[in-house]
Amino acid sequence: MSMTLGYWDIRGLAHAIRLLLEYTDSSYEEKKYTMGDGNGHPRVWALDAGALVGPTDFPGSIHPLPYLIDGTHKITQRTPSCRYIAPKQTCGETEEEKIRVDILENQAMDVSNQLARVCYSPDFEKLKPEYLEGLPTMMQHFSQFLGKRPWFVGDKITFVDFLAYDVLDLHCIFEPKCLDAFPNLKDFISRFEVICGWSWIRLYMWVPLLKECVLKSCVLGHSPSLSFFLSFFPPMFQVFPL
């Protein structure tokens, strides 16, 4: 029986989940929701959210996307979904590895949220310079945490490497040169794409672009190929002067 991944029709928080599903060769289908205009969630999402209510849910809460449904199991949020999909050996084996997993998964979420707050803000142009100013320090922290390890937790790939890959890749879109001073992070990106199957990662990331995609905030004047590329990313990445 296939799992169902529900999320907006953008890259966003579901990207690491998608990569993990592909990496583990899991059978799944996606249920994509069209993003609203900022005046509230689309009604179809509100109806689906009601179907996710269970005994462990917070009373009266609105279930956030992404969600993952596997038979009777219903999971919301990115990290719990990744943990559910990931093989047990990719969640850290020793106590030290499990600690590093916990640290990195929370750091990746914090950094993702910081970037999103800037990119989705109506004051984006004002906030961007300050964010760029602090970006080298942010990347340095990732570089120091990785150190000389092949993977962020140790010698074996773990599910948090998927989270780290996602957040680093997003920042490379935001500022293509942000990793130039950190060769170990660039090596990590290359290693991830090779070990996990560079061809399927890039094919997976590009296949949706071959389908009919509607640009939500596309700046006029881009070449068709770039427009197709931009359509894979959230509106926040469709307004950058690439």
Automatic annotation (TrEMBL):
GO molecular function terms noted in the UniProt entry: enzyme binding; glutathione binding; glutathione transferase activity; leukotriene-C4 synthase activity; protein homodimerization activity
A Pfam family per the record: GST_C
GO aspect biological process, one term: long-chain fatty acid biosynthetic process
Cellular component, GO annotation: cytosol
Lipid metabolism listed as a keyword: yes
Residues annotated as domain GST C-terminal: 94-209
Sorted UniProt keywords: Cytoplasm, Lipid metabolism, Transferase
Reaction(s) catalysed (UniProt annotation): RX + glutathione = an S-substituted glutathione + a halide anion + H(+)
All copies of domain GST N-terminal, residue ranges: 1-93
Cell compartments where the protein resides: Cytoplasm
EC number from the UniProt entry: 2.5.1.18
InterPro entries reported for this sequence: Glutathione-S-Trfase_C-like, Glutathione-S-Trfase_C_sf, Glutathione_S-Trfase, Glutathione_S-Trfase_N, GST_C, GST_mu, GST_superfamily, Thioredoxin-like_sf
Assembly and interaction partners: Homodimer.
Family of this protein: Belongs to the GST superfamily. Mu family.
Name of this chain's protein: Glutathione S-transferase
The organism of origin for this protein: Rhinopithecus bieti (Black snub-nosed monkey)
